[in-house]
Hints:
Layout: H1 8-19, H2 21-41, H3 66-72, E1 92-96, E2 102-105, E3 109-110, E4 118-119, E5 127-131, E6 138-142, E7 148-154, E8 163-167, E9 172-176, H4 177-190
Helix pairs in contact: 1-2
Amino acid sequence: MEQIAPLPVFRCMYILLKKYSLIGLLVLFAMNACSQNNDNKEQDSMNVDPSSFEIKKEGSYNELTPEEERVIINKGTEYPGTGIYLDHDETGVYICKRCNAPLYRSKDKFDAHCGWPSFDDEIQGAVKRVPDADGRRTEIICNNCNAHLGHVFTGEGYTEKNTRHCVNSVSLGFIPAEKWNKIQDSLRTQD
């Protein structure tokens, strides 16, 4: 009986894994990170109706995907360089993915070349700082729902404010400035 040779791609992967298991694993890891990046790019800004926008309270939080839950609830981290808001430069407001609370303004976003969106300021009262479990870093969480956002670092000199909020894109939503202004108007008329 004739033996059929495996497809060239699978044969190469087999050889890599068999002879160079570490390199093979790194290749697979890189392929996974790239595929995660492509999936996330499709979900850019949140589809928000300004007339029905609300900041959610406990018991009515937004439903999360398994990846969002891994980061936001279980304090995980998305792969560096894969987040949809890393190179995002539209004017508007970044909100908490879990509860819709406004967290950051686009004017405070800057490129720290660290692999995650970086901000040098938060909207006043929106972000809480807590010592991280590792004892070396400071975790940042949403002040409304305690969603894990990332970590804050000071003293690095990236901006005049000397602060870098390193935030997971998956923890954020984005509302363009025009929609945000309509939301603000709608909230004012409700008062």
